[in-house]
Amino acid sequence: MQSQTSNEEARRKPISSIPSDLPLRGIRVLIVDDSPENRLLISHILKRGGCQVIDTAENGKLGAERAETHEYDVVLMDMQMPIMNGYDATAALRSNGYEKPILAVTAHAMAEDRIRCLEVGCDDFLVKPIETKKFFDAILRSVDSH
To answer: Does 14 score more than 80 pLDDT?
Structure first.
């Protein structure tokens, strides 16, 4: 679960730091995060970059179900959630043959967290609070490579 401090830091990040040339134009995204504030903030940032935030889910179980039944270009997966965490959701999707990019988006920044995310099938690892350029670059890389 994300700390109050990182939520506040993310909210204080100036919107003017978001590129205005819509580098993510048309990319369809599913955001899976248990925090309504994080889903709203990430949606806002992505929309400013040109993404179509098609759907959100508040836990890994719903996220996995939506990923398997809808067409997304990329799934942004929080790793610490109730009901089903992002590790289990990602592993379940991969074991069912899901091939679209899944990016871990987590407040846990230790090297072993990154390794675990990649081992369960995430394509990349992003740390909260979100750094817009790194976030956009990772999404573009993952979509371009699939």
So the answer is: no
* Distance from the Cα of residue 86 to its chain's centroid: 10
pTM: 0.83
Rounded CA-CA distance 45/132 in Å is 8
Fold (CATH) for 21-144:
Rossmann fold (3.40.50)
Taking the CB of residue 26, how many other CB atoms lie within 10 A of it? 10
Q: Is the peptide bond before 14 cis (omega within 30 degrees of 0)?
A: no
**Neighbouring C-alpha atoms within 13 Å toward the C-beta of 54:** 16
Q: Inform me whether the pLDDT recorded for 103 exceeds 80.
A: yes
Q: Note the pLDDT tens digit of each residue in 68-80.
A: 999 999 999 999 9
Cis peptide before 101 (omega within 30 of 0): no
CB 89 within 8 A of CB 61: yes
